[in-house]
Amino acid sequence: xxxxxxxLGIWATGMGAWxxxxxxxxxxxxxxxxxxxxxANRKPPAPGVDVxxxxxxxxxxxxxQVARDIAEICLFASNPKAPADEFASVDMKVEAVSNxxxxxxxxxxxxxxxxxxxxxxxxxSGYLWAPENFVPWAQAVQKGWKLTAQKGxxxxxxxxxxxxxxxxxxxxxxxxxMAESNRLSKELNQAPLDAGLHDQSALLVGALALRExxxxxxxxxxxxxxxxxxxxxxxxxxxxxxPERELAESILLTLACRQVEALERIEKxxxxxxxxxxxxxLRNTSDWRLVEKPGEVTLLERREHARALIxxxxxxxxxxxxxxxxxxxxxxxxxxxxxxxFSVGQGHVLxxxxxxxxxxxxxxSWKTWSGKDLKTDNLVVILNDPPTRCLGKNQNGxxxxxxxxxxxxxxxxxxxxxxAMDRTQAFLRDMWGVPDAAAxxxxxxxxxxxxxxxxxxxxxxxxxxEKLYRTAVEDASALCRKQPDLVTCCNWATLRQxxxxxxxxxxxxxxxxxxxxxxxxxxxxxxxxxxxxxxTLYNASIGFWDKLAATAPYQYDVARSYLYKKHGNSPTIExxxxxxTKLEEYHLPVMEHISGNLKGDPKAYMAYMTRxxxxxxxxxxxxxxxxxxxxxxxxxxxxxxxxxEMANDRVSWANHADWLVNxxxxxxxxxxxxxxxxxxxxVYSYRGLETMAKLMExxxxxxxxxxxxxAIGERYNDNAPLIAFLERNQxxxxxxxxxxxxxxxxxxxxxxxxxxxxxxxxxxxDGVEFTSSSQLLVRNGLKLGHIVVALDGHRVQTLExxxxxxxxxxxxxxxxxxxxxxxxxxxxxxxxxxxxxCDMDSYIK
Length: 845
Prior knowledge:
Radius of gyration: 31 Å
Strand content: 5-15%
Shape: elongated
Largest sheet: 6 strands, antiparallel
Number of helices: 39
Structural class: alpha+beta
Mean pLDDT: 90
Number of strands: 11
Low-confidence stretches: 1-42, 154-160
Distance between the termini: 56 Å
């Protein structure tokens, strides 16, 4: 890889090659059978800013990509040795004939190649990416340009059979994918109109698309368009189906989230494709029970099993399978496991070395495709190779058909790199709370990836300074204005949302002006993002929802949205179970959703939670909290003890260990209390250290208590618990009294001063200002700009003083004296953990 690229070597080194994991509103525009489309005359909103879009909507772009791929492949077939400028001269037009985007006029001509204009009407039925929708276009092009079907040259090595290719793709590493692309591309250039080669090409593109797991950056649309083009050409060239065509079309339906139809097709695949059947069933249903021994199945199956586990359970379930049978050292596991929530402990495993694994995977793709080593001095140039269709340039820069052209593959690597940056920084900055490491990571990202096409979207998410954040937002907005086809719905929407800083996107087009159909015609593709982010999907008729739920019954977000659309805000437990009938037996989020509606019946709730805890022992924590609230103390102790013994998220467990420690102590089980508290402290979370410190205080072990309170200050930069401890106990021991004076002096040089409302007359010259707002702030009659001058009867002049006084009490209301801009007043605020959930800073006039 040329000079070494070392990224994120921040907190762990020296890992074994295979053991890396151990360390560390709806419109009725979805064209489904039997659903009336009421949006045929609805016009999309204007972008709101000046744009330079080549296509007027996402749907038009998608149709254009399929139709253009077909036309370009046919053009190449007519004269493979034509100069590059002739291939670049295709005059392609795609025009929607209805606002619902269910019909198009498509035309193409190539004057430079003396290819007459071909034009046809293209009505879309079923779903946009249905290959049969584009067969008439493929036939029209072949007829108009006088082309006929071809077979590979008899003198050349025979093409691998579809089944042979399918078996190779059961090990879908970058090396395998790119090697098969090189082989298949060579054959396709020799026989551009061989139906079997197009079937295989669609299969190979689908195998790459199935590997996609890039969170907010995930984008299967280019692959879906490419697969559709290959399959439409194959159908136009030969009506006789093949196993590889059946498999490719099953993948196509899977990626488009047409689950019921996909599963019907999957069942009909031949026995030789059993591994593929299982993998695609896993992808459609997320039923992780389909694989009993992950270490004994193909990489394809193991990857989809991991995806099912992270969808239906959590990251701990994935990591447990790694302990039993270590997986290949690939970036796929971190990609998949971080698409859902993960704990701090799991973050140490998943984020450590992730970016290096992404670079290694990129290097493998590049080496296999180009025959050259990847060097970091041209890393961004390689990654920014323009996304291509099938007709592009080969390794020698000449026009050629490439099943997985470099621009197509590089775009996939970019998306995964951005996902790795986003989730790694979320772990460092927001979860683990190591600001120096987060700032260092941000610096490394900018150093190695400056200029990468999608980087602004990643920088917007990982920025630790307002300057970088503002620049990233504006650069990302520019990409939306110029190349909207490169932007996912989720990433577009985040530019409108408030992030860590309040910099607005001043020149961002409206997302609804591009995503005019919200859901791609006839699919549930990208449902969650489009449902939440576009905000126009909520007004659909119940007929729409009936059909959507019948199309994608295993999609949790579809099922959940359908439940509330059909039954209102308070469904019965029977309605819950009816909506989730396909998922309840194995889908933890579904089970949690149902259990939340059983809390009014403790017996039923406890019985149901027993099932949940078998899948996820972390749920013993929630069960314990519930039982404490219901005053079932013995049952609560049992649940918390089970969490101590079995919970995977040790940070969450440690943060809830205090109740059990106090319960054991109050019941004379001192040794058990010490055992639990010691284990919580070893986790080194704030609450874990505090639990141990408070137990030592109760046991009057002052030195041990002080040591653990001091550890909180050292690790979390919060000395309030230590000072509060010393203040409570200063009369018990002269050493504590002296330590109290020494600890208090830097924060309150003149000591803590009492204060009452009558003491304040003129406008304040110092205090603590609310620098942002929150619902809790407004609910208590406070707002941005108000200044706190006293807390709990004591004068505050700095933020440090406020935080110290706030943390010296645990659950009491905040007794505030504030200046509201015109007068002083006293406010009593009861807020969780004595926090308003807003920004505050020291105020000096």
